[in-house]
Amino acid sequence: MFELSPQDWTAVQLSLRVAAVSTVFALPFGIAIATLLARKEFWGKALLDAMVLLPLVLPPVVTGYLLLITFGRRAPVGAFLADHFGIVFSFRWTGAALACGIMAFPLMVRAIRLSIEAIDARLEDAAATLGANRVWRFATITLPLALPGIIAGAILSFARALGEFGATITFVSNIPGETQTISAAIYTLTQVPNGDADALKLVIVSVIISLAALIAAEWLARRATARIHGA
Amino acid sequence: MLVVETAKQLGAFAVDVSFISESGATALFGQSGAGKTSVINMIAGLLTPDRGRIVLDDDVLFDSKARVDVPPSRRRIGYVFQEGRLFPHFSVRRNLDYGRWMSGHAPDPTAFRHAVELLDIGHLLDRRPGKLSGGERQRVAVGRALLMRPRLLLLDEPLASLDAARKREILPYLERLRDEAHVPLIYVSHDAAEVRRIATRVVRLEAGVVAETGGVELLDATHADVLA
Question: For chain B, which has fewer Cβ within 10 Å, the N-terminal or C-terminal residue?
Fold first, then answer.
């Protein structure tokens, strides 16, 4: 029978929570940076572009280590956030969400940026002559027209976060019930005798969730596109 | 009254124009590449002049010396673009209503009905722009610009993307617009026949400068044949 152990089930739930939270929190930043990169020319743009892409090309262990020395309990930013806002990342699921959000960020920004670049900027000019200031132009023209790309970016980011392993385990370790996501649980099971069967179950769950996410992304993006063009 | 005295360097091309437009319909006439669209983009605020001033009814919209540059969203100048530029994700009704919505005014059903009747677009209200013909699209674009209650209406070759039959279909609407809407028009075109029907005054541009200004009889002079 296909039955998950309580510990495996916890890992699945934790993964979904980490992926969802990281995506929701990354989305406003993703939209802002994608808009900046798609529409503005400014000094240091090439550098920002490279920085956003960095997690894609760096070894995940390096990203995890950088997070550890920045957001760790005694690290500068980590200590500041803990003392002033009570936000703690190290060895917490929130840290896993931070690591996943950063690892998935390049994919999210790329999808949203492409969809914003595909929008005719002259429509925004037309909106300006009709009395729309910068904020309203963004809210009524750019954002709705970029919606398919934003949905795609969010779901790509969610799926990427589900699969994150290296940066997460480096930054927040592999604590069952707190930071042990599906990937970490599978890794742990492959390290113990007779763990293969349970590992396989988690592998199947992982494949199902990822497939569902991709199909949902495609469907939602199609629906959003159809709505834009009034089909 | 509109006063335009502006200069702008655009790569190797320079625009340097001065003219005054009273009420009625003024045509900016000239060959493509004469700088017509650059001039109305400066009037609308979409293109920033290097120097000069633009004044509409005693309201300074741009003055390089006084460092005044009113953003396009606060100029209240309607603009009908060559390609319409309707918002594809809104119905025709919401496109028409967009200017009113952005200004925060209460809906004005009387003004809406007038514009819809003037342009004969009542049967299109619930369609999306993607489902309109070229001529319908331009009529909706005119209605959208009109319904923002502009102080001045700019039309940039509104018929250029249409075939001859569509042009004949739209021209009467533009004449009605001129006679009934009580908004001064700046009409950009390279087509002498079109200008003759719409405009009361002509500003002829050539290579980025004003070559001459006058009445529509300007179009009968020799250079009109060159342009035809």
Answer: C
For residue A129, the chain B residues in CB contact (below 8 A) are 44-46, 72-73, 75, 77-79, 145
Closest CA to B147 of B185, B199, B95: B95
Output the six-digit token pair for A107. Answer: 């994919």
Task: Report the predicted TM-score, pTM, of the whole model to 2 decimal places.
Answer: 0.85
Any A CB within 8 A of B131 CB: yes
Give the whole-angstrom CA distance, residue B1 versus residue B23: 6
Q: What tens digit of pLDDT does each residue of A1-57 get?
A: 578 888 889 999 999 999 999 999 999 999 999 999 999 999 999 999 999 999 999
Shortest Cα–Cα distance, B78 to chain A (Å): 6
Q: Name which of B82, B87, B138 to mutate to probe chain A: the one with the most chain A Cβ atoms within 10 A of its Cβ.
A: B87
Residue A223 confidence class, pLDDT cut points 50, 70, 90: confident
Query: Hey, is the C-beta of A139 within 8 angstroms of any chain B C-beta?
Result: no
